[in-house]
Design a protein that fits this description.
CATH architecture of the largest domain: 2-Layer Sandwich
Distance between the termini: 26 Å
Shape: globular
Strand content: 15-25%
Number of strands: 14
Largest sheet: 8 strands, mixed
Helix content: 25-40%
Bound molecules: ligand FM0
Oligomer: single chain
CATH topology of the largest domain: Ribosomal Protein S5, domain 2
Order of helices and strands: EEEEEEHEHHEEEHHHHHEEHEE
Number of helices: 9
Radius of gyration: 19 Å
Number of domains: 2
Length: about 325
């Protein structure tokens, strides 16, 4: 059994995962497609120990309560089942985000856990098996097994729902995060997507256009057409967010500053930059632009946002073992 630190980077969906066909197995309603990023990652080590009475989960050296432990336990239980072991585990995780801005993501966390737990249990899993395992913890984590662009193919059951690599993103594409602070308590993505599937009359409309968005963005990625990739991603995100307004009770992840960020993006486009935005289950806005123009675009945004709100990100690598923790 090898207890080693395993690192997974977060990913941002350009075609969103929003809604489950199977809640327990986390089979999604639609395929999704993401870009893994260098700037945000989680490092995790798992140690199975016969002397432990319960599983323990430490995030940044602080023990986590039951709610946080639940997703972790789901993954640990599957690993124990596969490896035929009964021992409880100590899980140590460190989140690496440039600011304390609520950017911690379950995608990198659960992907790193899948890697570290299977390694500690002596399982030699393929990337595909790791993607399925990470998926059971959190759907978006299935995509963080791979660097660059990855597509989570929905499949129809536990065995056929996994992500595949699409393109290494070794071309001029980057993302710039605009961190928007909002005091409102957010609806978690898990709860938000469930409520939307169940109650929003717009949900079917969202599903109807996904195949077209997916095939268009894959063509654009093939052609390294940044403008098309951004435009398709922005439309796709706006459609996803539109479904939440139709839910009962209705909700939105947008705050006034999110809209200010969207306006800033439109201004930049008028200035001639190829820049688009996407948003997830929170108020932060993520810009899709040329990697070579990240600094220039950031300097324009400093008119409206502070330095600490703007974080540059480039395409990042897939899941890997690290010899020691990063600082
Ligand atoms: O990442 O219920 O993976 O495709 O980020 O744990 O399976 O946290 F904008 C929303 C991510 C959803 C889009 O959901 O949910 C995306 C979202 P879980 P996740």
């Amino acid at each position: 059994m090898k207890s080693e630190w395993v690192r997974a980077h977060t990913n941002i969906a350009l075609i969103k995962y929003w809604g489950k066909e199977n809640e327990e197995l986390i089979i999604p309603m639609n395929n999704s497609l993401s870009l893994t990023l260098d700037a945000f990652y989680t490092e995790t080590k798992v140690t199975f120990d016969e002397n432990l009475k319960t599983d323990e989960f430490y995030l940044d050296d602080m023990i986590q309560d039951l709610a946080e432990l639940e997703k972790v336990k789901t993954v640990l239980n599957i690993v124990r089942g596969k490896a035929g072991i009964k021992a409880r585990a100590k899980v140590e995780s460190h989140n690496h985000v440039p600011t304390a801005a609520g950017l911690a993501s379950s995608a990198s966390g659960l992907a790193a856990l899948a890697g570290a737990a299977s390694l500690a249990a002596g399982l030699d899993l393929s990337e595909r098996e790791l993607s399925k395992l990470a998926r059971r913890g959190s759907g978006s984590a299935s995509r963080s097994i791979y660097g660059g662009f990855a597509e989570w193919q929905k499949g129809t059951n536990d065995d056929t729902s996994y992500a595949v690599p699409i393109d290494d993103a070794n071309w001029d594409i980057g993302m710039l995060f605009i961190v928007v602070n909002d005091k409102k308590k957010e609806v978690s993505s898990r709860e938000g997507m469930l409520r939307t599937v169940k109650t929003s009359p717009f949900y079917q409309g969202w599903l109807n256009t996904l195949d077209a968005d997916l095939s268009a963005i894959k063509d654009a990625i093939d052609q390294q057409d940044l403008h098309a990739v951004g435009a398709i991603a922005e439309r796709n995100a706006l459609k996803m967010h539109a479904t939440t307004l139709g839910a009962n009770p209705p909700f939105t992840y947008w705050s006034p500053d999110s809209m200010k960020a969207m306006d800033a993006v439109r201004d930049l486009r008028e200035k001639g930059y190829s820049v688009h935005f996407t948003m997830d289950a929170g108020p932060n806005v993520k810009l899709i632009c040329k990697q070579s123009q990240l600094a220039e675009i950031k300097s324009h945004l400093l008119k409206d946002f502070s330095e600490s709100q703007l974080i540059e990100a480039k395409p990042g690598p897939g899941l890997h073992v690290v010899s020691k923790l990063s600082n």
